[in-house]
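Morning!

This is the sequence you dropped in the shared folder:
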Amino acid sequence: MAIRTGAAFIAGLRDNREVWLGSERVKDVTTHPLFRPSVESLARLYDMQHETAYRDVLTYRSPSSGQPVGASFLIPRTRADLAHRRQMIKTWADATCGMMGRSADFLNTMVTAWAAKSDYFAQQSPECAERVLRYYEHCRERDVFLTHALIDPQVDRSKNRAEQADPYQCLGIVDENKQGLVVRGGKMIATAAPFADEILVWPFPPTLTEAEVRYAMVFIIPVATPGLKIICRESFTKLGQAADHPLSGRFDEMDAVAVFDDVLVPWERVFLHKDVRLVAQLYTGTRIRELTAQQTNTRFLSKIEFVYGLLCHMAEAIGVQNAPPVQETLGEAATFIEIIKSSLLTAELQAEVDPSNGVMYPALQPLQIGRTWAPRMYPRLMEMVRRIGAGGLMQLPASVDAFDSPIGPDLEKYYRGAQIAAREKVGLFKLAWDLVGSDFGSRHLLYELFYAGDPSLLMAGFHREFDKRACMDRVKEFLATT
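The structure's back. Tokens below.
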């Protein structure tokens, strides 16, 4: 099949999946008014793969079929391959202003990392390694859109999975038979689950004890599998004119809880099970971190470039772009862009080939800069939007339609900017409000704070893993000369 069109992606979602929005079971996520804008935004990414302007960046030749396939499935063997992957990710991220953190390239990257380290799964059995390779090829050749659900329900975090009052509060194995595993329980946070073809499940964080063996499993199944329910949060999609809700009207990914009611997972889709050590070490053992960190840093770069551009436009709109405090603020925002960009390029420059599989991996420590600093940079950028926008964010007319009403002349007079017309300024500030004042914007702030885990633990982990010996030795050498 090779690369899909947007129409083919949309058609694939009409599979009688069980998706709940409040008390409503959604019959068709592709036509539901609160889901359709996001589905269409994702479909646009698939269509870009077919366009001459993007085809060479977004695709590469399949090693099996020779047909174009998504570049997020490219197993990197050279620095040029890493650059190709980065450029592909950036192109898709730019198309959504960096607002869709779980576009298809994220999980494509994870499955690609598994395939590159398929020997890891062979420690469970040779069949598991073969399943991983077959599944990777299945996804690559059919352009599958995956999501994942990793986190246990937030019920009683003082107890481990086996200690919960209900042994199937967390997703666990009920039975195994000739067909596969039967699983029961819940998983969160399944971002984009209503729009995904399939869902990857494994326990994360991987703090598994020997008592938690029934929870040790890694598998992928179609979202439309019988017994799987997707329970959505409130939609943040705002209907109406795009000018009134420029981001939330298009890019609400939707987050959900996945509930498994004695779901059968065929053996062909089981990659690890009941081996606590292998499941717990999967993240580092398959070197997922390096490749997914490149994706998340690139997507974050796209997002903060967009925010910086907005800040510059806002400052010019109200004539404060030359004020020293504002220039200092904008300069700080610009440094964030260069920090993340530099970390990405440094990771490629310092990339090394893993002799076990011949794969070129970007250096991890530079990429961890994005993971540790994004939870600090993004809230600061949102503070900048608030400071520059100030009261102007609160005085916006309810709708841009009002410019065509009897109060239009008043709006043109009192809502204009320093050098731009009122309608243009209102559109700009409505974009800013969508980032900092709407439920959509609040969700993105929370997302950037926690998407890679607890920010404090991430920073502490960076210190633990950092090669500190050389720095410490310098201090010792200096003291020895005094």
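Headline: Residues 317 and 417 are 5 Å apart (CA to CA).

More detail when I'm at my desk.
O.
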